[in-house]
Amino acid sequence: MLEVKELKVSYGQSEVIGSLDFTLEKNETLAIMGRNGMGKTTLMKALMGILRSRKGSVKLAGKDLTAMESYQRVAAGLAYVPQGRMIFGTMTVEENIRTGLETAADKRIPDDIYSLFPVLHDMRKRKGGNLSGGQQQQLAIARALVSNPKVLILDEPTEGIQPSVIKDIAKVLNEIRKMREISIIVSEQVLSFTLAIADRLMVIDKGRFIHENRRADVDAARIRQYLAV
How many domains does the chain have? Predict the structure, then answer.
């Protein structure tokens, strides 16, 4: 579904991502784990075209996205939930969700959105800035989903969220994959969350992948060592 080859990303003269290669299968959830500053967010932004790559290619279902702007990648089937959620605080929940419909042919909010996130239905007239962190994260995911993506990209979705809500988000992501049959790529540091959703884990360190495992084969102690500061 997603194929990344020889991807390089730099900030000025400083190379942050160094020649990464990976694939994401249809209906697969891939977790990219690593400590802060190792390149996770840079990679997510490069996949979305927010940051330009110096080299390499990104293909979605065989379509080359490399030269596309972010909005074109959304229209092609990528959706992005950024780190920090970035919802619009002065807009209502419903208005926030509708901003994700810009590239959709049908401008109505799909029924399954409120089925997946019943709390958003109850709060649809409330300002986004008045929601809790967990509710804002659900809103950010809902906003991304209404574009009906082939691949959903989430950057640090558990950041600043209490453990009970983290479990709820894991449950929702698994339900989304069943209902929509989409692929998910998530950058994350919370191993328990990753093991609840991911088919495959990759560890990034200084812009390069240093470890990969199927979930069934994961050595949790080893992963925690990679994540330790």
Answer: 1
